[in-house]
Structure formats: structure tokens, C-alpha cells
Design a protein that fits this description.
two-stranded antiparallel sheet, 71% helix, mainly alpha, single chain
Amino acid sequence: MRFSSVSDVTKEISLRAWRDWFSSALLFGTVALAPLPFGSTDLISIALWCVVLGIAIVLGPVDSFDGGHATAFGVVFALALAYSLVLHEQLADKSWLPVGLVHPIWTQASEVLGTSLAPSISVAKHQPFFELGRPLANILIFLAGLRIGADRRASSSLLKVIAWSGVAYAVYGIGSHIIDPGKVLWREKVAYQGVLTATFFNRNTAAVYFGTCAIAWLVLLLGRLRYQIVEHKSRWRSTLRSLLSHPPHGSITASLALFVCLSAMFMTGSRAGVLLSLTAAVIVFTAYLGRVLPRGSRVAALFVVAGCCVFLLFQLLGGVVNARIDLQGLGDGGRLHTYKAMLGMIESFPWLGTGLGTFVWSFPAYRPSDVSLWGVWDRAHSTILEIASDVGVPLAILVVVAWILMLGLLVNALRRSRGEDTTLLLAALAAAFVALVHTSLDFSLQTFGFSATIFALQGAAVGRAFRVLRKNSPSIS
């Protein structure tokens, strides 16, 4: 591009800076506000976020991308293309595939009604179209996060937005639970009236959201304490004395914010959400300080110290969770029977599934007698199994492979990272651990108010990972 004068260059730089700022602001606003409208579970909210994120991606400059970012875009494009193919087959009147995969319910309904009904792969016609927004929103926010990952300052700002948003929702959740525990915002609670859910309807999703925000505050706190710990790493008493007498700037605020998020997490009463978040916190604490302290017994000591702190915290704040564990244990027999039934669903429709978002209509035919008749199972309580049953095993395998590739990239980059890059990568890996394990036992990642935080953070971390690996790769002469 040629410029006729210095003023043209200045205008171009100003325009690029404005586009960069506005695109990042749209992403930060989505991450901060997605949990607000009841976790953004309704189709109108999701459609709005898709529009906002689409604008953010279109406006965002891409001149800072390199080959690694292009590879990430290629993987996402391949995944989106696979989704498009499956959705076409589930929605189209005429299939592109040579084999007939029509759901038998349409033949049965035609016989019962005595009229010919147009067949479909989906058990509920056109339902995949209305459910398209959920995976699309996750893809868009990942790409928006990937864009800002090329900039260390912007990616660090995203982590702070996640952390501060968690504090705001935790303060609101605690306050609303004390004042009127029977409402979510202005609506009456249908379930979980005795526990905190903040702006979410489900306490388990609220627990992993606050757990993820607590992890963000933990890594930010460790980043502020790092320099004094390194300076006195061979003298523990000197380290403690220095931290107490001259706490680093912002460390007290970070500690209080961490405590608020943990308090909100415990008040949800979610067993899996609390235990997974605390496990991730122990791993983060040990992994972060283990990089700056001598290897060997001290790393093991860090793990023991972190475990003891978590145990004391659990005893102090975990009354509701302890009561549930004492009463119900750690398992849920209903879910185990449901998972077995879902394997039967997947076996019946392995290639293209029963239709995106059709679990609530497909499951009753497979619901085992061992499961209580109370309640409606509108979710599979295992996202990966629901993906396999809704859109088929091949697409579910592609989703798993994409996650494995991404986590492998982040682990490799974490080993070579320093400073703020370590903070972001470690937070992303810990958040992924909590989200992936929990959504395998529940449906937390199917709530955009939570998945927006996870996918934006993963996208930014992937963007930083390519930068870290390129910076530390051996030069080629």
C-alpha cells in the first residue's frame, strides 16, 4: 500500500488503532456481560453475541498473524466445515450422502397418521437450525480471542476482565442470596433455591464459573508475588517477612478478590465444581512456584502446603458441599444409568446423530427404568456424549482431537514461557481442566455465559503460545 503523504500514514495508523481497540472492547464486553442475562442460555442472547463477535472479528486487524495463527484458523475452519456438512444433512430435504440415514420416527408417524411426512435425519425437524447459534458463538469468541493473543498486553487485559467480572458477579450473587435467595435477577428460581447461583440458573455452572475466576485471581496474585519469592527463594522466613511487611502492589486486592470468588463458589454447594476448582488451584500453585524454586523436595513441599490450605479452606467454607457429600456421596447413580442409555442412542445413530439440540426428544425412548421418573432430562449431563448423540461420532472425534491439539500446544508453550505469558497459559490450562472434566459430568460448556470465558481464554492463550514458541525456536540461518 502506498501513501501520498505523512498525514495519510498517520490516518492509517489511527484507523488501525481504533479498529484494534474497538474489536478488543467488543470481545471484553462479551466476556464480561455474557453471564448477566441468565447465563445467555436463550436463543436471542446467543444471536446477539454472534453478531457482536462477528463484528469484532471483521474489524480486528490481522497483519500481526503468522503461520501458527493461520494453522489455528485452518483447524477451526475444518471443524466448522464438518459442522456445516452434518447440519446440512440434518436440515436438507435431499441428502448429499448416498446412504439413507433417515430417522425411523418419520416412517412410524406417517403410518400412524395415515399421511406421508417428509423424512428427516433429525428427530425434531428444523431444530438443528435453532441450535446452530451455540457452537457458532463458541467458535467466534475463540477466533476473537485468538486475534488478541498476538498482543501480550491485550491478552493480559482479557485475563483481568475475566477476573474482575467474576468478582462483580460473586458480590452480586452473595448479596442477592442473602437478600432474596429465591430469585435469579428478577425471575423466581425453579430449582436450587437454597444455594447461590448468581445470574445462572444452574448451581454447577455457577460453581465452575466462579472457580475459573478464582483461578484467574490466583495466577494474577502469584505473578505479583513472584519477584519477592525469587529474591528470597532460599530463605522462607525472609520471604514471609518481606511479603507481610512490604506486600507487592495489588496483592492485597487480589487476595480479597480471590477470597470473594472462592466464597461464592462454595455457596453454590456444587460437589464436582468445587472439588475440580480446588484441584486446579493446587496444581496452579505448585506448577507456578515450582518454576521459580529449586526442584526436588521444595516442589513436593509446595504441593503439600497447597493441599493443606485447600483442606482448611474446605473446612471453613465448605459446609454445604460437605453436607451434600455426607448425604449423597460423590456419585450419582441416575447419571451413570443415563450414560449407559446414551451409548445405546449413539450406537443406533452413530454417523450423523439424531439432530443438533434434539436430546430432549430422543432420550425418552432410551430412558432406562433405573432412572427416577421425577424430572425432565433435557441435557445429557455429559457434553461429549451429547455431541456424539446429536451430531454423530465422527464429528465428536474431531472435537476431541481439536481439544487435544490445543492443549498439547499450550503445554509445550508453557514449558518455554516467562512472565505474563506463563500467567496466561497456566490460567488457560487450569480453566480447560476444570471445564472439560466438569462438562464431561454435566453440561457447563453448553451455557454460553460460562463457555464465553473458557473459549475466549483458550483463544488468547493459543495466540500467545504461537508467539512464545516462535520466539524460543532456534533461528534458521
